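Quick board copy: two proteins, each given as sequence then tokens.
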Amino acid sequence: MPRKKSITSLAQQSVGIRLSSHEKICAERMNNLIISIQRLEKKVDTLSDSVSKGKGIVAVLVFLGSIFAAAIGFFNYKWNFTTKVLLLI
């Protein structure tokens, strides 16, 4: 009977060693995953900031473009109106 106990204890030790090495590998993998997720979160934050700035710049450019188009339209109308008046005289 003592031999069986030593075999089972040897098997249990083997399983314990395998389990502890497996836990170490899994812990390292989890740390790598956490680090990569943190890097991705930082990249997403910077990209969202860039998109927000881009939207603001586009809004400003549209506003300036509409003012510029309105000014050109006004001067074209005024120019056409004055030439018609001069031709009538």
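And the next:
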Amino acid sequence: MSQIWEESNDYRGKPVSGRYTESKNKGTPGMEVCFEISGHKKHLTFWLTEKSEERTMLLLKDLGFNGDFENPKFADIEVSLQCKHEEYNGKMQERWAYWGEQQSAPLAPSAAKTLQAKFRSAVGNVPVPKPTTAPVMPKPAGAPSAPPAPPVAKGPPPRPATPATPAQLLATDEASAWAWVNANRGKMTDDELNANWLTVVENVNPKNPEGWHKVCEVFQIPF
């Protein structure tokens, strides 16, 4: 058995071949794409379920897919790939994913106003703190013109705290919830992202959290 690759979001690979496939349990259609990474072959399956079909088509377009499911071809390009580890049947295995090369588009002014109105409706008007000016204390006689510089701390700087974005206030349906997840991927740890996502799902539709299925589909988990 080959050695499991390290977890990373920074692998670079080229799509070199593809084939149409279906999941064993439900016959879900998909496109299996073979990527070449540093001379090694890794296979990713892009599932075409009813909910993930549009997203999958956009990812295939990013890869230069020719649209021919009988004889698929891809562009000679290099893209970013992610490798994560997961346990299956008591064994650790790799889970590869491709999230696309496109960055999120700037927020349109109309969309920004809508989100601002929803935020104010939920929490009210938040007062803007006024800057405070510290009183100028007289310098004692004989005091140095400037205080000595503080000692330089050794070791790596502390990790900045994750912004406390109120995800549940910015998501009103599955689409906006998923947009929030995409915008914050890479800014949070997996545990923080999952915790916020579950909060979003509970707020959007607590009786039937269909949004979780969306996560499974985009993670290329067959149903």
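Board note added afterward: The longest strand covers residues 8-22.
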